[in-house]
Each structure stands twice: as structure tokens, then as C-alpha cells.
Amino acid sequence: MKIKFRLNGRLINADIPGGMRLIDLLREDFNLTGTREGCGKGECGACTVLLDGKPVNSCLVLAAQLKGRAMVTIEGLSDGDTLDPVQRAFLEATAVQCGFCSPGLILAAKSLLDKYPDPSEEQIKRAISGNLCRCTGYSKVFKAIKMASETHRNSK
Amino acid sequence: MGLIGKSVIKAGGVERVTGKGTFVADIKLPGMVYCAVIRSPVARGDIIAIDDSSCNRVKGYLGLFTAKSIPGNNVIPIVFRDQPCFAAKRVNYHGEPIGVVAAESKAIAHTALNRIKVTVKELEGLIDPLKAWGHRKIKLYGDDNIFRHSKIRRGDVESAFRECEVIIEDTYTTPYQEHAYIEPQGMVANPLPDGTMEIYGSMQCPFYVREAVAEVLALPLSDVRVIQTSTGGGFGGKEDVPSLVACQAALPACLLKRPVKLIYERDEDMISMSKRHPSWIHYKSGATADGILRAIQAEYIIDGGAYSTLSPVVLFRGTVHSMGPYRCENVHIDSYAVATNKVPCGAFRGFGSPQILFAVESQMDRLAQGLKMDPAEFRRRNLLKTGDTTSFGQKLSWSVGAKETLEKVVEHSGWRNHIPESAGDKRIGYGLSTVFYGVGLGAGGKHLARTGARVMVEPDASVTFSVGTTDMGQGMQTVLAQVVAQELGLPFENIRMMPTDTSRVPDSGPTVASRATTMSGNALIIACEKPRDSILTEASILLKIEKHNVVIDEGIAFDRKDGRLKVTIKEIIKNCFGKRMPLTGDGWYNTPETSWDNETGIGEPYVTYAWASNIVKLAVDTQTGEVEVLKISSAHDVGKAINPAMVECQIEGGVIQGLGFALTEEMMADSKGKLLNPEFSTYIIPTASDVPEIEPIIVEHPYPDGPYGARGFGEQPLMGIAPAVANAVADAVGVRITDLPITAEKIWRALRAK
């Protein structure tokens, strides 16, 4: 089937099989490897992308559901070599260990900060509770999101 | 020491936060074939037939590969050689690999997998290790189904118990723990036209993978090249089992002469890959009225599963750690690794010690309670210190920071200063644990206790280095780059670690046992000697000063006595190349000797030990038994923190993984040995919502043989959390839970039974 959608700001016309998962479209057809498959069941959050600004598990979404919508993957967050403040904060706060879950966590955090620029600890925890990380123990991830929130506020 | 002790930003961090395709699942090669693994549907049985005739009409199906297709030996060599690559006649656990199907796409491979008809005659299996032990009829390993029996014999336990004021005796059990690395296992095998085989994949131990692939394909080691891709978490779960995954991809690759990709499904990964051994521990210990730990007698049984894999060495480490970090002169320990018809257990952060330490540290609190003594004070009186001799007879000549870790957590946690807090039905409790960890492979794997490194300085002052150990997220790459930058006086940004590759350095053993920083750090310091000497020599010529007065740091060489006299290292290196001076170096590091007598349990099993204390503050709801963890203080003696932020991150991550082991994580098997909850919705690991305040505390008692005084400690943060939680629950509501995980239901039942 033929669909039109926005991918990281670019307008895309694609012809896709009806049963294709969004994660496969991204990884196989667009070579966007930052969307990662950790479980294939919507349980780990490693394949998180932003669909119209909201985080979704791309392993549970059909590519066909993209029709007319705007999607952002981790590759669309940085502007060339300039990292998004959330990406930079993850590095500066040592919130990255193996990095497999990092793109999903960063996108979930990005979506939170776009909606709530000054989130509470509880809001942060809730926003990323669907993104499993087995390395960091999350403490430095909380710190990174707070740092990004401050950068965001100071830049305004 | 400009870069040592500095929290530089992660090497390779930008690739991680921008989602670059450096993981094995991201690899695409022309003509790539996909495969899927056929697994045993029963825990024990005889394979009658594997029939793929209904696959032959599937377009894109490329064939079935089984034990019969193997050109070499059907064995995955680890400690012993009892595990096959594919079960040939007899299956010994539910999920055991019996073959692979290969196809033009992943979807076709899975269609074929569903059509394959496997006929197995089911046999009675041994599921319970206590029943498997010495089973009269069913023999899984040797005559008694025991992979290994370890002992410690010291002093006279019987008479020592007679002197004790308090004796505590109880049974403790711990379940399977699943590593739950977020990146599933995966490998790509790429046969080259010259007959050699390249393997890319997620792994901790490329040299193990190389040995297994060479054995199965009947190739010399020189013809197998293994390259680690970015690895999304290991925790021990990518120590030995990636060898299986690699062989499952390499066999069809070799026979089809095409590259093959194999990425595990999550449930497949959880069913068939290694786990933390379930354990059964009977522990008796006693203390005299003056608060001295006088005698320990214990029996420690771990459920090894169907094949021995790493169980003998897991048991070794568990046995060495079975007395905790205390002086005790009367010890009698018997530990056993037992064969059962279940998935083979293996390495997991702590390697046989978290189970026994759960018992050790629970007992310590109960002895203190019996003596009416503060648990911190009781530990203080018995903790090992520099100059002491351990229960296994090793003199500790240096850097025992155990007591400092204890004092630090006591000071930071508000330990015992609390007025009994209670809000409604909630009761607050504090729990303490003190643990230790033998760093490196020790006497259990001393033939592998060596590592190589190579450093190459380029004409533009950029540097590449190679080591045989791997980064799986823990931060080794960054810490080692800091060491190289420091040794060569160059900025951190100039240093690049090459992917770990068996063709770059000699066999350096595995990346396990918290050994990478110490071992590869030392090998790199040796490898830097030659290029460093060239740089210093040329600097002394350019600065017209004596070589011993040259200081190099962050890209500048200067005179120790007159800081104004400087020259850039870039210029020095350019000159060195012009003069054809050597700017490449190889390093090879062997650890000092270790020893262990398996009959007496006496020796010097590890070259050094890391030390830690934890205090958990939590609230228990007396109506529901639910636990809310409020704060965890965790102090670790790491020798020297080369990158303190990364040390903190290792502490925080380990503590949370330990909290999962304490409270929620339990992989369950049914009576026929089938695992029941192989998915994240039923195997519950901590999420962001479960995380309390964590206070990581770094203690530094330098290890004289370590790089800049550093020693490994990455496993230790997990190890003492479960007993600290159990002790805090006992402190809060007076019930003692002896079987992990400590669920609300168990607490509720214990409260009702009170």
C-alpha cells in the first residue's frame, strides 16, 4: 500500500506491505538502526519512536499506521553534528552504559520535556518507566533529564 | 595524574546517543542468510527423527543443519567437554538446540522452523537438584550427578560451636536470576573466499567463541577471526553462551558458503541462555559472648543444569566467598554443583557468591540480634583488615578497605539514629551487609590469567590501541583510553580503542571476574613503554634537558623544573617518525601466582579483593507485606577510581540489579523443567519507577599491582543488596525471609504466622 508521512522532518512517499511493522520499515528500508529491537512485544521500550510527538513502541505499530503522521527517530534528534540538549545531557551525566536502550530513553525524555519543561521526579520516573535499562540503575538517567530540563529553561 | 581520577565523557558515547548502527543486529552483508534454532520440546528424551520434508516446498528455504552436519567435534569446550553444540541423540533440557534451519529471510526461517517435525521420545528427567544428587537410576553426569564438590576445612568446628553463646542455623534458597541484558544474543558468521571464518557478535569473550567455532568447524585457530560488535549488556550472560550462538550461525555459513545472521528472540534467549544458579544453602554459624564469629558450617548446593559449562568455577568462587569478609578460625564448608535436566546455569555478576552471601549476611544479623549487639558493631569486631589472615589461610598484606566502607555507609545512611518511624501501617527498617569480591580469575582459572595489548601512535599524534578484553557497557573502553592518554601524555580525544578482535592481540582470556580494568590496564601500561620512551627521548632533545626531567601531559611536554620550557607532543611525534623511532608497543601482563587446595580449601585463591558495605532503608506495609525501598547507601573500595562517574554508574546499576534479585526477579520452572516466564511482562526487572535514592560512595585503598592502584569491582555492587533488604525487613517488622525473592506475599504470610 502507498502511504505519505513525515520522517525526521522529511516528507516520504512509500509503498509498503500491509502487515509490515514500523520497526522493520525503519531498520530495513531506511537503515535507521537507532530504533532497536529488545523484545518485539512492547515490553522493553528499546524501539521507542515519537509519533506526532508521543512515544510509541515501534514493534507494536504497523507501518501503515504512519499514514499522514509525523515521526521522529533518534537519528532525527541531532542537527548534523550538533546534539540535542537531551542527548548531550545523557553523555554529560554518564547516563549511557551499553547504549542499547539509550535512543528509546532519550526519545521518551524528549517527549516529556516538550510537554513539561520542568518535570518533577515522579513525572520523570513515569515518563521513562516503559524503557527498560539494565546497566545504569536509572539514577544517572534521572540526572540527565534534569540537566536537559535546566538547559532547556536557561536557553529561553 | 591529569586524566586519572577524572570523569571524562564516555568514549563512543556520541555513537550511543545518536543510535549509530554498531550492534550485531545492524549488520547487513550481501547474500546474507538467516537462521533459526530448532529446540528440544522436552527436558529429557531421545531424538527419534528431525524431519524437514514439509519445508522443501517453502520458497527460500536453504536447509537443515544438525549434529550430523558438523565437520569437526560436536562440543562447546568450556571447563569440561560435556556440552554438545547440537544434541545428537539425547536431549537434556527443554530448549536445548538440536539443529538450525537456514533461509533467505528471517520470516522464511521462522516459517520453516514451524514446519520442522521433531520426534522425541520423552524420558523421565531430574528437575530437583536435591533429588538429582546421587540419583540411583538416572545418570546425567558421572556416577552421582555432581559436577564438582568443593571443601573448606579449617580448625575444629564442633568444639568451637560448644564455646558459642549464640548459634544460628537455617536453610536459605535463591532462584534463577535472568541477566535480562536489553540487547538479545546475536551473531553474524561470514565465511571468506580463502576458507577462513569471520564472526561478528555480541559477546564478552571473543577467544572463547574462537575456540568453539574452530572446534566445531575443524579449523585451526588461525582461520577463525572473532570481532566483538557493540554489546548491549552482558552481566556474565555473554560469557560462555555466545559460543553456542556463534556455532549455530557458523555451521550453516561454512556449509552454504554464505554469510549467516542469527539474532535471538527474547523468549528464546530467556529459555535457552545461562542464568544465575538456583541455590540451596544450609548454614550454621556461632559467636562467642564477646561478639567474635567463632565457627561456620555450611552446605551449599547449586543447580548446574544439564551441562557443566562454568559450574565448577562458579562453585569455586562461591566456596571462597562462603565465610564473608570476616576472620573465622573454625570452618567446615561443603559445596556441590549438581546436574539436572534444565538449562545450564553459568556466569552472572557475582559468579556464585551472591547466593551464599545472602545466607552469610542474614546470619551475621541474626547472630548480632542473638548477642543483643548492633549489627554494625558485630561486623566491626570480625571484619578482615590489612595484615589479617582469611579463613582460607591467605594473608592480606595490603589495601583492605572493608572497615572504611562500613563506617562510610553507617555515617551516610543515618543508621540506627532513627527514632522508630511509622506512618499508619508502615514500619521503617534499616539493613546492613558487608561483602567482598576476589578480583580476577584467581586459582579457578589461573591458566587464563593473562592479557595482551597493543598501542600504535600515528604520525599525526592520534593513537589506536587494542586489547583482548571487551566493553559491554561497563566503561572499560573509556577507562583504558584514559590510561593510554595518561601514559603517552596525549589528550583523551586522541585515543581510539579498536573493536576487540582475536586477530589483534594474543588470547587474553575472558572478560569476566571484574578483571578488564586491572588486566588490560596493566598490559597497556607495558605496551606504552616503548612509544613513551621515544616521546621522552625526543622531548629531551628538543627541550635540551635530561630525560628524567621531561613531563608529558595532555599534549604538551615540559621541563619538570621550569614549566615555561615546552614543546607539543604532536611535534615530538612528527620528529620521532622522521627519525624512525619506534612508536608501537605490545604489552603482556600475567597476574601474580594464586593457589587453592580443593581438599582443604586452603590457599591464596585471588590476587586481591574488593570490599563493600550497603545499608538499605525501607518501609514495610504491615497490612499487605509490600516493601517500599527508600534509600540505599553503597560504599566500595575500588583501589583507585580511574573514572569516578563511571564507578558510580557501576554501583548504581549493580545495586538496582541486586534489588531485582532481592525483591522481584524469579525465573520459574514447572515440574517438567520448562521455564514459565521468559518475557519482561512476567520476569520482573526494576523499572525507573522502582528506583529509590541511591548514594554511591567510593573508597580508595590502592592495590599496589593495579594500574594507578585500581582493581576491578564491577560485580560487587549487586552482591550484598539481597541480604541488606532481608535484614531491613527483619528490622522493620521482625520477620526473617530466607528464600528469595522477598515478595509481599512471603512477608504477609510471615507476619500472619507471627
Notes on the structure:
The complex is a heterodimer of chains A (about 160) and B (about 750). Chain A is about 35% helix and about 15% strand. Chain A is an alpha+beta fold and about 160 residues long. Chain A folds into 2 domains: about 1-75, Beta-grasp domain (Ubiquitin-like (UB roll)), CATH 3.10.20; about 85-155, Orthogonal Bundle (DNA polymerase, domain 1), CATH 1.10.150. Chain A has a 5-stranded mixed β-sheet with strand order 2-1-5-3-4, with helices on one face. In chain A, α2 packs across α5 (about 140-155). The model of chain A has no long low-confidence stretch (mean pLDDT about 95). Helix content of chain B is about 25%, strand content about 25%. Chain B has a 7-stranded mixed β-sheet with strand order 3-5-1-12-9-10-11. In chain B, strands 7-15-14-13-8 form a 5-stranded mixed β-sheet. The longest helix of chain B is centred in the C-terminal third of the chain and has 20 residues, at about 645-665. At the A-B interface, α2, α3, α4 and α5 of A face α1 and α16 of B.
